[in-house]
Structure formats: structure tokens, C-alpha cells
């Protein structure tokens, strides 16, 4: 089996070799620009990994893997407009560097280019793989819509939050693994199992991210502690705390959420204090582990040699942190 | 052969029966809304017409025809954001009625739904038809980009204008006919000929539209005469007049283009006066006829019974106006 890092590098190189039409320049330059921003290329690498695990030809799977990366960057380009984000990975976003219309239209073309790349598979797999791609793409759009809806709602339930992050971030991981496995020759049953593995691992990973924002040591993770708290982001921790809180805690929490101006450190300390008082960390960890367990259950059912399963276990373990 | 009007009606009914996911509502409601605005359903009806002409099953071609209509409305939804248009067909545009983010994201989903509908064809045609759809879709985006580029440029040449309207409006007519003919059982050679017919007819039709804006009688066409002149729209007439004008005429024309405030009727009369002086109407008609001739040449080469060709000739004639 090839190392995941090597697959990421393979994608990174393939991205630089992508060729689009040169004209009209303003339509295609933003595509090269956003693709050159880098990133971990995790989604396309997972597609290649799944193909490899099922004994497929990794090189032949590069175009559909690039399709996943181009699609992912299309969603970033449009999300950045919707979020009015000035920066992505420290660089000016497309709608800021060009203009909003360029970002809308270049994004549209990226989605079409994604389909063109995804179609570079054998005839016998074409319909099956495009169906997975369609479902993945629709899921991501639905997830983004829910994320925006939730920003202006004050009654979001935990189940709705899980449903949203499943669509917005987990489905595309599952979809990439599913497509890769099918390209590698997997039966549909195994393709669905590896998608289940990826989706649940993605959920566990997102919940871990929510926990690390508050409880991760800044030295280890290089992130500002409490960023989500400062921006009132509706994470698992906040939503569950609102459910668990008594009247007094709830009032205090809402006071901080609605505060117009505040000292960042003071807010982070106060909200973390409530999180601790209601014991939300334990709930979050339990839920995270429940999804990680589901991922491992799906993994065990895969019709793969023990060695390949071990590889997948190692990959899953590497994503889940033992110590904060 | 079925009457075009009946095919338009068939599509109109099929559009009302389209079902999308009910949740999240804000993602799918704008899709139902824009599709309910009506319109002539010309593009999907042409797809069905081509299928019928080559002896195909019109009912089976309805999903790909709907794909073309859904795709077309996706472009309208995004174009309206880019053009900051408050109204479409007398109704509030999606980005005004909901908000811009809803219009971006609903449009994105429409493009994906378009692919899902377009995939409802036999396996043996799937790749071929999706390739045509990809080319059409990319062409329309490129055309829209050029249209926006041209708005802020003052040196647009006639060839560039023709290239732009070919991509923005003619390619999708050609694409619809091509897909329909393939579904009807046409050989690729004939599919390409009918696409050539549609593309050139589309160009002729667009040029006719440019002419009618200035020289059409308002009683016959129900349009305000000179709307393009008032809004400085870079039509064939304006661009060619700028090429043909002597220094004096050019100065006068640019004075009207750059005038901040003016009396509409006065501007229309003055600019029309220059159009007449440089004889641009004749040039426009010559070019229009040249494209119409190309369309008829392609038509004659089609491997179709005389009766079916006669039907196509009748359709083309009905689009081209004899008297203004």
C-alpha cells in the first residue's frame, strides 16, 4: 500500500499540471489561483488510497481524484462569497482579488470541469461513479445551506447539527472513498462500507475539532484557544451546553452570546467555565467515540486482507488525537 | 412530426411535475420559483423536436430536455445576480426575493440537478451526451464572462461580438438539437450538422433581435424602440457603426454613449440617424442572412427525409421575420 503522504504529493503535482482553456482569462485565472493555494489534498488522496486498498491502478484514478479536489475548491470559492471571507489560507479570496461576479462564474465552470474530470473513468463505471458524485455534490450544497440557516437560528438541536456537519464535511470524505474503492474494483457492498467508514470518521473528526478549539493546548495544535467561543460558532459544545444548562447557566451563556463588546479572554474563560459546569466535554467525547466506533465497525466488515484493514486502522488512529 | 407548440406544452407540463428534495426548503424553493416563471421552453422543445425528427421516442427524451431547461434557468439565476437585475419576466428575481447567498447556492444545486436529469439516457449514449452537455455548459459560462468583459471595454470588435453571442446564446440551441438528435438515433455526423444548423440560426436570430430593437415597428413587436441604444448595449449595430463611422460621426456617437443625462427620444433619434448615415442596417442584414444561409446549408446536408427537412425549414422561416 502506498503511504497517504505520497498520495497527497501525487495529487499536489497533478493539480499543478491541470490545464484549462486560456480564454477568457478572467474566467480561468481564478481557478488556477485557488487551486494553487495548496491545502492537504486529503479528499483526493483518500480516493486514491481506497483505490489502492482494493488493488486498483492508482495512476488511472488520478483524474477522478482531481475531480474531487476541483469540486472541493469550487465549494470553497462560492462559500467564501457567501461568508464574505477576505482571506483563505492567508491569501486574498477570489471575490476580493477579482470581483464577486468572477468568483460566481469561475466557480460554476469549476463544477463543470469537475464533471469532466470525473467522467475520465471506464464506461462500465461511468454511471455508478457519477451517481455517487451527484449525491456527494448535492449533499455538500444542502450542508452549506443548513450551516447558513443555523447561523440565524437560536433553536438548533444537536441532531440537526450532526446532520449538517455530516452533509457539509463528512459526505464528501465518504464519497471520495466510495469512488476510489469502486475504481479499485470493490463490490458495491464494500464501497458502501468504506463510505460509512469515511463518513463516521469525518463526523468524529469534526467533533474532535470542536473539542480541541476549547480544550486543545495551543502549543500542540497551533490554534487560538476559544476561537469558536469568541465568534459564537454553533459547535457541538455550545449547542449541547444550551441543552444541558440550568436557568442560571443558560442566562449567563446567552448573555455572552448576545454581548456586543467584550474582552476575548474573559468571554472564553466564562463560557469554558459553563462548559465545565455542565460537563459538556464528556458528552462531546462520548459522541465522538460513538462515531469513531461506527467507523471501525464498518472497517471490520470490509472484505479486505487483514494487512489492508490494518492500514485503514492506522489512518483512522492518526486522525484521532489521544491527548489534548 | 409533432408541432413545436405541442412540444413546448409537453415541457411546460413536465416542468410542473419536477420533484426536488423538500429540505432544506430555502435551497429548493428558489428552484421551483424560477422554473415556474414560464418562458417559451424553446431549448428543451428543440431537443424534443430533434429527437422526433430522427424517429426517436419523444417521451423518453423528456428528462434530458428538462435538464436543458433546468440548466438554462441555473444560468438565469446566476446571471441575474451578476447583472443586479431586480426583475425577470415581471417577477422579483431570486436574489432579491430571498437573498444573494440563496441564489448562488440554489443555482449550484440546479446545475447538479441538470446533470442528474441529463444522465437519464441509455448507457450507450451516456458519455456522448454528457460530453455535449459539458461543452454546452462551459460555452455558456465563457459567453457570459465575455459579455461582462465587453461591458467595460471600448474596443470590442465585431468578430469578438459574434464569438460572444455564439457562446452565450447560440451554442445551447445547437447543443439541445445535437442531444435530441442523438437520442433520436442520429449518426454523429447528422448530430453535428443539426447543431451547426441551430448555432447559425441562433446567431441569425440574435442579429435580427439587434436590428429589430432599432428598426422594428413597436406595434408588431411590442418592444420599446431603441432600448439597446438608450442603455448603450454593445449590439452589432453599435459596434459596426463605430467601425464604419468617420471622425465626425464617431465623435457624435461617443458623445451620446458617454452622455450622463439625456432625453431618451432625442438619443434614439440621433443614434439612429448615425446608424442610417453609415448604412449599418444593410451590414447587419447581410451578416444575419449569411448566418441564416449557413444554417440552411447545414440543414440540406442532413440525412433526413424531405418531409422532415421541410419541417425544419418551416421552423427556421418562422423565426426569421420578413417585414420589420
From TrEMBL, chains A, B:
Enzyme class: transferase
Alphabetic keyword roster: Isoprene biosynthesis, Magnesium, Metal-binding, Transferase
Pfam families, A to Z: polyprenyl_synt
Assigned EC number: 2.5.1.-
Alphabetized GO MF terms: transferase activity
UniProt KW Magnesium keyword: yes
Reported cofactor(s): Mg(2+)
InterPro entries: Isoprenoid_synthase_dom_sf, Polyprenyl_synt, Polyprenyl_synt_CS
Keyword flag Magnesium: yes
Cited PANTHER family: FARNESYL DIPHOSPHATE SYNTHASE
Family of the protein in this entry: Belongs to the FPP/GGPP synthase family.
Name this protein carries in UniProt: Polyprenyl synthetase family protein
Organism: Mucilaginibacter ximonensis
Amino acid at each position: 500500500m502506498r503511504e497517504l503522504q505520497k498520495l497527497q504529493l501525487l495529487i499536489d503535482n497533478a493539480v499543478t499540471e491541470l490545464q484549462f482553456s486560456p480564454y477568457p482569462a478572467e474566467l480561468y485565472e481564478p481557478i488556477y489561483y485557488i487551486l494553487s493555494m495548496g491545502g492537504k489534498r486529503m479528499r483526493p488522496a483518500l480516493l486514491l488510497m481506497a483505490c489502492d486498498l482494493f488493488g486498483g491502478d492508482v495512476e488511472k484514478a488520478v483524474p477522478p481524484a482531481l475531480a474531487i479536489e476541483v469540486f472541493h475548491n469550487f465549494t470553497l470559492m462560492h462559500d467564501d462569497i457567501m461568508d464574505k471571507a477576505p482571506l483563505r489560507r492567508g491569501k486574498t479570496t477570489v471575490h476580493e482579488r477579482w470581483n464577486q461576479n468572477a468568483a460566481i462564474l469561475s466557480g460554476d465552470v469549476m463544477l463543470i470541469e469537475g464533471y469532466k474530470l470525473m467522467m475520465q473513468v471506464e464506461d462500465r463505471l461511468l454511471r455508478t461513479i457519477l451517481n455517487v458524485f451527484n449525491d456527494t455534490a448535492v449533499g455538500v450544497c444542502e450542508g452549506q445551506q443548513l450551516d447558513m440557516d443555523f447561523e440565524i437560528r437560536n433553536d438548533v438541536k444537536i441532531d440537526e447539527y450532526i446532520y449538517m456537519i455530516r452533509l457539509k464535511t463528512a459526505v464528501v470524505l465518504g464519497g471520495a472513498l466510495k469512488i476510489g474503492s469502486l475504481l479499485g474494483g470493490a463490490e458495491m457492498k464494500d464501497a458502501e462500507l468504506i463510505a460509512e467508514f469515511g463518513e463516521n470518521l469525518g463526523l468524529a473528526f469534526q467533533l474532535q475539532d470542536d473539542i480541541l478549539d476549547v480544550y486543545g493546548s495551543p502549543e500542540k495544535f497551533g490554534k487560538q484557544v476559544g476561537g469558536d467561543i469568541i465568534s459564537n460558532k454553533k459547535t457541538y459544545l455550545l449547542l449541547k451546553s444550551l441543552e444541558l444548562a440550568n436557568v442560571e447557566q443558560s442566562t449567563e451563556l446567552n448573555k455572552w452570546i448576545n454581548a456586543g463588546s467584550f474582552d476575548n479572554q474573559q468571554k472564553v474563560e466564562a463560557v469554558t467555565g459553563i462548559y465545565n459546569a455542565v460537563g459538556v466535554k464528556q458528552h462531546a467525547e462520548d459522541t465522538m467515540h460513538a462515531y469513531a466506533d461506527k467507523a471501525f465497525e464498518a472497517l471490520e466488515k470490509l472484505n479486505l486482507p487483514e494487512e489492508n484493514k490494518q492500514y485503514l486502522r492506522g489512518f483512522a488512529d492518526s486522525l484521532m488525537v489521544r491527548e489534548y
